[in-house]
Amino acid sequence: MSTPHAAAVKTEGLRRTFGDFTAVDGIDLDVRPGEIYGFLGPNGAGKSTVVRMLTTLLEPTGGRAWVGGLDVVAEADDVRFSIGVALQEAGLDENMTGREILATQGRLFGLNRSEIADRIEQLAPILEMRALDQLVSSYSGGMARRLDLAAALMHNPSVLFLDEPTTGLDPPSRLRVWEEVRRLNREFGLTLFLTTQYLEEADELADRVGIINAGRIVAEGTPSELKRAIGTDVVTVVVDGDADAAKSVLEGIAGIEGVDVFGGEVRVSTEN
């Protein structure tokens, strides 16, 4: 069984209900191989439910879904071996070291001792080397999140699902996770399906963004396309000096559509 065409992730009319409540209401997705797809929406919009269906943790009520050409219901076992998953709650054993957790993950996916050692060495840049042999109980929140990311990559998956990977992290830890996401995509051509509730995260990382609300896709496109669709932004700048000189400088900046002076204020219209 395979997808209608070569998509990394594809859904057709995907639906999930819980009793009388419709959590996911007939969504269509088409994620291209090698792209970072941002799945943006507020809490309760249906993001995590979609991820749980795509990763075979929850069966759809209706519609169909494929990951890497494999049907998530009919070929669930094959899907599990082809994907990596890092959910909101890492579930790491705090009494193990980072190296032990990675080795255990490798064994679960059938890697031998040599393959496990090689893979840990490849993934070591995600963590600080010294952290590999420390107990997880000593890890910061950001370090634990990066270990969970490394564990999801032990078996070299073709698609990586990240469910709100930076929720609860401080700004430096969030930036470190962003750097790793970019590096994995750039160096390994990995397809990433990333859910987030943060606009800036989707804007910073994603090649394309799908916006979900109340279980439905309400918009989709590149970050630039989505920002342009909202319309022109107007920024008012109060100038302590020569407003006309400020206007001349601002008019030379790319993306500026118009500059008007009103007394000591300069109003700037931008593309997004």
From TrEMBL:
SUPFAM superfamilies per the UniProt record, alphabetical: P-loop containing nucleoside triphosphate hydrolases (SSF52540)
One protein family per Pfam: ABC_tran
GO process terms (BP): response to antibiotic
Region forming the signal peptide: none
Superkingdom of origin: Bacteria
GO molecular function: ATP binding; ATP hydrolysis activity
Subcellular location: Cell membrane
Claim: Chloroplast is one of the keywords in the record: no
Domain called ABC transporter: residue spans: 9-239
GO cellular component, one term: plasma membrane
PROSITE patterns xref list: ABC_TRANSPORTER_1 (PS00211), ABC_TRANSPORTER_2 (PS50893)
Keywords, sorted A to Z: Antibiotic resistance, ATP-binding, Nucleotide-binding, Transport
Main location: membrane
UniProt entry tagged with the keyword Nucleotide-binding: yes
Bilayer disposition of the protein: Peripheral membrane protein
Identification of the protein by name: Daunorubicin ABC transporter ATP-binding protein
Source organism per UniProt: Microbacterium ginsengisoli
Lineage, broadest ranks: Bacteria, Bacillati, Actinomycetota, Actinomycetes, Micrococcales
